[in-house]
Amino acid sequence: MSERFAKKWESKREEQPFTNRLKDAVKPPGPLKPRLDFAVRRIELQVQKLDQATERFSQRDKAIFARIVDAYTKHDTARANVFANELAEVRKMEKLIINARLALEQIVLRLRTVSELGDVVSTLGPAVGVLRSVRSGLVSVFPEAENELGEIGNMLSGIMIEAGQGSGMTLNFDTVNEDASKILTEAATVAEQRVKEKFPDLPQGIPTAPQTEQSTQGF
After folding, report:
1. pLDDT tens digits for 17-29?
2. pLDDT of residue 120 exceeding 70
3. How far apart are CA 120 and CA 137, in angstroms?
4. CA 134, 127, 48: angle at the middle one, nearest 5?
5. What is the pLDDT of residue 207?
6. Which residue ranges form the domains of the chain, and what is each CATH number?
7. What is the pTM of this model?
């Protein structure tokens, strides 16, 4: 990393054009590295909240499943089917949350490997895309995360723009979209597998409720 990049990375550059100094006086951007670390910590906090949400849904899943088994053993098929429909919806939400958590976890891992301004530009592009997809996917399931993820996305976008100005790099949007799609696809695949492994199948004879087609890749 050049001396110029290092100065911008660890602290504000001392020599800046007057227009930049004026802009910074209104809203000082601060060093990029500490701001990036702060964004990572905020994402990690959201991951923890998603873990807590997953636990709540898991407890609800177990309770509904027990009711299905009870109704089934009493040959009350109609009641069992009602609970089965409810369980299908709960599991759909569980998968969305697990999917979102895995995607955010991948973003954290990538951001922690950033060491130069050029890396910031190439890493934050897909990260912002993933955050937007995760945010839109959680609106109906975990609405309290929407505002926070939006703010984190805006913060990362600002860091990315400044890093691009400092390094002279520009985004290749085709690559950005491809990388973001890859992260979301991998998260969706793992989430599907985890749901299958974590939750027991319904008793034979109880149909699973038809689920609305919804792509977990792009939420």
Report:
1. 544 543 443 344 4
2. yes
3. 25
4. 55
5. 55
6. 30-198 (1.20.1260)
7. 0.70
